[in-house]
Amino acid sequence: MNEKAVDVGETPRASDAVQMVDGVHVASFRGVLSRLHADYPGEDPARIEAIVLREWEAFSAGRPLVVPAAVEEGAREILDQPPV
């Protein structure tokens, strides 16, 4: 395992960018990519994004921790309609 990859999650830069949601530290996807691009300028941006997506899938097991507020609004619109 790449020791440098482990250290990245514990850097002050990463921890300064997180918020807490349901007891889990979270950061914006764009922010994570931006910090990793800055810290690993020689890496292909597509590779960095693929790694972040792979790590997110492994962490989340496909269940979102957060969703855009519009998702709830859309669900309410559907639930407000009479059943078919």
UniProtKB/TrEMBL annotation:
Q: Which domain of life is it from?
A: Bacteria
Q: Give the protein's recorded name.
A: Uncharacterized protein
